[in-house]
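re: ur question from yesterday

yeah so i grabbed the chain u mentioned. its 379 aa long if i counted rite. heres the sequnce exactly as i have it in my notes:
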Amino acid sequence: MEAAVESPIPGIEASVPQTKKRRASENGVGVNEMKNGTTEKEKFIDESYFASYSDVELHRTMIEDTVRTNAYQQAIFQNMEEYIHGKVVVDVGCGTGILSMFCAQAGAKKIYAIDASKIAVHAKQLVEANGFSNIITVIQGKAEEVELPEKVDVIVSEWMGYMMLYETMLPSVLYVRDKWLKPGGKMFPERAMLFMALGEAQWITKYEEGTYDFWVSLNHVYNLDMSLLADHAVARYKDVVHVHMVSQEDIVSLPTPVCDLDLMRVTPEDIRCISHNFNLASMGSRRLNSMVLWFDVWFPGGLKLSTSPHNEDTHWQNTVLPLTTATVKQDTPVCGVINITQDLSNHRFLNVDLKYRVDSGEEIIRGFKMDDNCTDNDF
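ran it thru and got these structure tokens back, copy pasting raw so excuse formatting
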């Protein structure tokens, strides 16, 4: 077994150096390949990504999402006798260690809590404060680089990002699965599905009207014609992926599954490029202006965690792709193809390409980049 790299924090095992700030500029970052096959740029991107998870407030946002946190707790406790009690567990991307401590409460024999960010320091302190130091070992390091002393019976991980795949954490979980999970072991969650449906997002219409009126109104205020920017501002808004909670009344069609992942079998190559041909039908006479995406995951035993607009809000919200506004009526067909790929310049980001046709109209092609800006929009 490879020796672990000495941690800069006493008492915490480590295998990667300290991290940098996530949103720092990439200027000057080279692409020279390093010994482990990654490039300097990829290393910088990962370090910046892990640095963002050092923020305690980010973990508060996730934990206070009771839909999320309660689902994991219930899944662990409902399956404790069969899958958790007396078992060896690894928690990939453990954050504050709350899922690891749920497993300890459920009677796990040993838990390895892995996180590459500095939040591992707090996780170790919390483990000690709750009396689980003899059960939970916190390891600060990348999941792909950590060496465990034994195979595990269970993998627990909350790896889902916006639109399920944003941030591209799932490949790290799959790496741990392939290297450390015993035959017949379990994954929490064990299945994940991404859905899409037609939408009439009311806030898009309000924004379009408000921003258009603003630029036009400047003529009355300052006697200057600024209306040329009105169309530009509206068009810019439609070129951005929005993370926003959509009400169930704004869903205009039944959903279609974009992908259905069996987490015991799916490979990183399977999720590098996801393509789905869709054929949706509108419900009622509406103004179609968006495509809405969300995901569900299932745990052993059947418990489901859903981020659907038809269920209680979560911190993941929904992912909204603005479309050219079109009027539809009952059963108007909207068909096309959606492609979701990892961005070549930053593997944590996603590209979403959409080709679609409303009824017998012309084919429309839209391209979206899902990056940090998708969470910075002011609705």
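noticed a couple things. Residues 92 and 157 are 5 Å apart (CA to CA). also The radius of gyration is 23 Å.
anyway ttyl
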